[in-house]
Structures are given as structure tokens and as C-alpha cells.
Amino acid sequence: MKITLEYGDDDRQEAERALKATDYGLVLWKLDQWLRVETSGIYDDRVTMGMQRCRDKLYTLMTEYGVEFPE
Fold it and tell me: 50 lies in a domain?
């Protein structure tokens, strides 16, 4: 598949975001994996619950924006 995106001179920031989209996704995936491991760690219940809330919020936002992690 070939996709061509064109940006005007004033759209530099949008073009850079599009080029970095995969990197943004990888950062979120790595954060999710880190939170998953940490929530099964040795922290007290309040810390673990806070980490789980962060992970839940991440999934809520992903659903709202129609994105998901690749399988």
C-alpha cells in the first residue's frame, strides 16, 4: 500500500507528528507494559491502585480516539 501525505509550509508541526506516530505508539505501549509489571510488584495497595488507574485511563483514552495496540 502506498499513501502520500502532503503538508504546506505552515504545517511543519503536523508533518513531524505524522512521521513520529509510530514512536508515540511505542512509547504508550512501553508505558502500558511497565505499568502492568509494576502493578503486580511490591508496592502498597494505594500505589498499585494509582498505577492501575493510570493504565485504565490510558485504555479509556485509546478507546475514545479509536486506537489500540497491535497484537
Answer: yes
Report the alpha-carbon distance of residue 54 to residue 60 in Å, rounded. 10
For residue 69, the enclosing domain spans 26-71
Confirm whether 10 is domain-assigned: no
DSSP state of 43: -
CA 5 from chain centre, in angstroms, equals: 23
Q: How many domains does the chain have?
A: 1
- Residues in contact with 31: Cβ distance below 8 Å, sequence separation at least 6, in sequence order: 58
pLDDT at 29 over 90: yes
What pTM does this model have?
0.77
Task: Give φ, ψ of 3 to 5 degrees.
Answer: -125, 135
